[in-house]
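agent> call fold_tool(seq_1)
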Amino acid sequence: MPRPMLRTPQKTETESHSLLSATQNREQQNQKQQIDKMKLDRLLRKTRSKEYMDAIHRLDAGGHVHNQNKVNSIIDAIKREFPEVEVSGILLGYVAICYLGAPYEVHTLDFNGGIIEHYKSGTSLPGGLEKARGIAMRGGYDFIEVYVDCCRAVSSNGAVSVISC
């Protein structure tokens, strides 16, 4: 009698149970991640506080570029606005129209690097911030928060609009 070339492995009851358990654990983790994402989205949609708005508006003052203590105070205000979230992994930075005058067009705060920079017209923005430049230049918003997966445009009253980028 010929021997079969391929053998179908027989799973024991224990192996079947552990596979089922691993599958259920993955499903539970996926559901938890979806719930966490929904909570995060809800938190990041809330109206921004006056303290937060004032801190972000100080970006256009111009003197912060050379004063790291003032940059750090702005970053601290951002962290106080979202105490329940670790934004450093998801928030790339901020983009807004620059009112310093020609030749400057927009200014940014690179959240991870803690760097404020004013950009001239035609100079591309680093670190994924370029996707918010057009939104900022159109006007209607005080500033744009740039996240890994979207942009959040913030109006002068603190209201937030989510924009896919």
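agent> call fold_tool(seq_2)
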Amino acid sequence: MDWLQILSNTASSILSPATIGYALAALGLAVHFGYAGLINMGIAGFMAIGAYGYAISILTFGLPWWLGAILGLVAAAIFAIILGIPTLRLRGDYLAIVTIAAAEVVRLLFLTTAFDDVTGSADGLSGYHASFRASNPIPEGTYGFGPWTYNETQWWVRIMGLMTLAFAVLVVWMLMRSPWGRVLKGIREDEDAVRSLGKNVYSHKMQSLVLGGVIAAAGGIVYALPAAISPGVYVTSLTFFVWTALLLGGAATVFGPLLGSLIFWGLQTFLSNVLPALASSGLLPFMSPIQAATLRFILVGVALMLLVIFMPQGILGNKKELTFVK
């Protein structure tokens, strides 16, 4: 077993586009659940709309990458409004059921052959990278050190992802320290009390749904920057993984989603390397390497249950402020 290679791959995942995309999605979910108390189980739908909106804008309409990214975010905002109008008066489990169904509807729309010319149906979309890569100011070559050595294109993806994440963190941090953010926290604790003070609870919920949805869509765009888009990525398990990252770091925090995403993807990468190696070496004799690689998803599910039971506030969260079940 090559431990050096395993540790190198794990360290490299810290700066991967997947980690950055998950961090953005988890930050958007923190706005929904951590601050507004909205149990959104359809975060994968927002990520899909951001990614597909970005790619379709480039492939179908020939727009530059930056305008395609803006249209992907606008599409996510429109989706949030359409989703929120009939559902934001629901609470708890009912909202969770509706949002998870909405995300599946979005995925199936992208998967159907009726829009094959636009969405690529089961084949997904690819070939939308030329405009983004042409704007890369980094000279051709390989840069970095150790496991963080990448070529100019890989660095460009990571730099844009980190800049987007830093901007989103700054926006959420400033908003949650404002009167608007304090109203959201009040809605999370007791929306009837907030309503009795003359605040428009429905409007604030809608605003938080739009804001968090746009941030999650940005995560979907970053996730799709280095590779092709496949509808098989935006399944329900993606939502559960984002929830795991959020709860691990701390739902009612700004930096918790970042820490949770980093730990989540680090462990995913570590286990995806270690478990097949253990199976190949005979230390897991009852499993093949492929079965051992799948075992990590079972471990993620177990970890999510343990988090909800024993540490619902997360690593950076305050137990007195928020728990998963009140």
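agent> summarizing second result for user.
Residues 152-176 form the longest helix (25 residues). The first strand starts at residue 142 and ends at 145.
agent> awaiting next instruction.
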